[in-house]
Amino acid sequence: MITSAGILLYRRAPALEVFIAHMGGPFWARKDAGAWSIPKGEYDAATEDAWDAATREFREELGVAPPDAHVLDLGAFTVTSGKRLAVFAQDGTDWGPGPFEFGEFELEWPPRSGKLQSFPEVDRAEWATTDAARLRLVKGQVPILDVLQRLV
Predict the structure, then answer these.
(1) Using one digit for the tens of pLDDT, what is the confidence trace for 56-91?
(2) C-alpha span between 59 and 42 (Å, rounded)
(3) CATH number, domain with residue 116
């Protein structure tokens, strides 16, 4: 099974908000609903700890470090793709990331053109209320919000 790990930042301002990222690349460019994700990525559970992978992926996708804050383990979720996603939450109330430097990936684009192009893994990231995030997150990540709301 493929494993991923990610960090979901939250804050109360005054409603509960979460920090989510819009997926980059041509497939997601004109979509909003169901086109956002928590910062996350794959890792090899045999050689890397889930928390270490989550912090590494946060830095790779956003180009900034997560806050130095208490970590809540929200658990592991089986998402729509069949991957197992370990999710950690941190209070991002006082987090001031500065400018983002989004990581990139290569993709043959246009399809079957033989041309590789670079695209950002994430093209923007922002705070959203949990109600807004329910509409924007990819379907398989929505249950993560329920767990976060129960714990904070």
Answers:
(1) 999 999 999 999 999 999 999 998 888 899 999 999
(2) 13
(3) 3.90.79.10
Statement: the pTM of the whole predicted model exceeds 0.85: yes
Domain of residue 86: give its range: 3-93+101-151
Residue 1 binned pLDDT confidence (cut-offs 50, 70, 90): confident
36-60 per-position pLDDT tens digit: 999 999 999 999 999 999 999 999 9
Residue among 46, 67, 71 at smallest CA distance from 58: 67
Q: Which residues contact 98 (CB under 8 A, 6 or more apart)?
A: 64
Which letter, b or e, does each residue of 7-18 get, where b requires 16 or more Cβ atoms within 10 Å of its Cβ?
A: bbbbbeeeebbb
H runs (alpha helix) in 1-137 = 50-62, 130-136
Paired sense of beta strands 3-12 and 84-91, if any: parallel
CB 39 within 8 A of CB 58: yes
Structural tokens at position 133: 């995030």
Residue 83 CB neighbours (<10 A)? 15
